[in-house]
Amino acid sequence: MKRRDFIQTTSAAGLFVGLGGLSSLSFQSPGKHLTILHTNDVHSHIGPFGPNDGRNANMGGVARRAALIEKIRQENPNTLLLDAGDIFQGTPYFNFYGGELEFKLMSKMRYDAATIGNHDFDNGIDGLYAQLPHASFDFICSNYDFSNTVMDGHTKDHKIFNKDGIKIGVFGLGVELQGLVNQKLYKETKYLDPMEIATDMASKLKNEEKCDLVIALSHMGYDYKNSTISDVKLAQKTNNIDLIIGGHTHTFLDRPTVLKNKSGKNVIVNQVGCYGLYLGRLDYYFDEEQNLKTKGYSIQV
Amino acid sequence: MKSFIRLLLVISLFSSCKNNPTTISSFEGKRIPIDSQLSEDEEINDFIAPYKQNLDKTMDSVLAYNPKLLTKSDGDLNTAIGNFMADAVMEQANPVFQSRTGKEIDFVLLNNGGIRAQLPSGGLTMKKIYELMPFENEIVIVELTGKDVKDMLQYLSKAKTAHPVSGIELRADRNYKIYKASIDGQPIDENKHYFVATSDYLQQGGDNMNFFANPVEVYSVDYKIRNALIDYLKKTDTLRARIDNRYIRE
């Protein structure tokens, strides 16, 4: 391409960013704006990495993340903050305080919800239960049956958030624990088929609860070469899910993945690696259906 | 170039809930690096501070004195650091196993890949042991048949690696093939059962140690490997870890 065209294109894109992303696109002005922020696999990383930590050097740190989240909330109060699990395990903070500090900091940052990752069982299901008083946010998990465990009644199978009249339905999906976590740790937690659960939950949230946005908060993993269920497979094999926020595989996506569901509709899948090195930011703009001139929704990633 | 890649795509609408007038008109997604260009929330830093101070105090506490640098590459088929780890597991886990079952651990097998850091000379701090063993793996005692142990010898012959052992003597030829193995001076007896201490990770198939896959029995001692190392060092003034003749090659 010609150098001149290239410069024009980049400066135009730069202008969008400078004006605060898509809000600069004037045709959305009467609509509503929802911002979703997300993390996954933070693994007890509280302070930033040191200068000699290879590719992670000088990155991460809860105090920076907290300041960034607050800045974004001031820009847009309609912000939802989610975590896709594996909050625990990875630094001595977890070994010493058992997850207390992680939950307290997430509460201070006003996380809205988290799902449960395999490492969140590392101090046993009793160890997870013991830290619940330090968490002011909800744990959403739809495919773990905790009936015969201490966690019974302490998680939600879905939650509906309302931000400026936008209804957001969130459900949670955990990874199969057998073979991954010592059974002594997860005890009688029963793993239920995520495809079946997701199909039911998403249909319920979209069609019965009339949610404007249906989110699967998943710790199943981005994708696998074998037939193991993953976020990508879930996106393609179901209906009614708009967004999958994932974790487990520590996948660093430069930008969200846009896929088509079973009926050819858009599903966004995102994951931001691990250790709190990145914060995912997803901005959705909504409008009254009759105001939309075209039957299309634009995607910028 | 990155900005150039940011394409604006118009993709077909999904409007599955007709009763609801609100629908998505556009979407933008990105990731924001958490780096040193961001400011820090000082209230959060103040909140973390006492946790960090308490942690640092404990992590900086010296457990034992180490006269020289120990690395996992300082030996051929046994290393000082691996010998220390395997010996510590034997010494710490055996009394627990004995009190629970009345039996004794015959030998210990760990994996070279599980040695996650070197140990510097000088005071060994708690922090160093967390770096050496960051995982929460527990010690398990695996009851193996003599035949399983022979499979283990074949595994080791092929691995050609200084997997840490304690309580067993191994002799390999120039090509790493083990031709002699003895426990308490006795050769491996195919009709006997052996109690092998290892990590739950290896017992469950880690490092393809498949000879652990179908054991006669697995006994738990509820003892993390890291805690065994810490407890061993706490009662040690000066660590005398050295390369010896437990696993050597001609």
From TrEMBL, chain B:
Pfam family, any one: 5_nucleotid_C
Alphabetical list of InterPro entries matching this protein: 5'-Nucleotdase_C, 5'-Nucleotdase_C_sf, 5_nucleotidase/apyrase
Keywords: Hydrolase
Enzyme Commission number(s) from the entry: 3.1.3.5
EC supergroup of this enzyme: hydrolase
Key word Hydrolase present: yes
Tree of life domain: Bacteria
Record-level Gene Ontology MF annotations: 5'-nucleotidase activity
SUPFAM superfamilies: 5'-nucleotidase (syn. UDP-sugar hydrolase), C-terminal domain
A single GO BP: nucleotide catabolic process
Record protein name field: 5'-nucleotidase
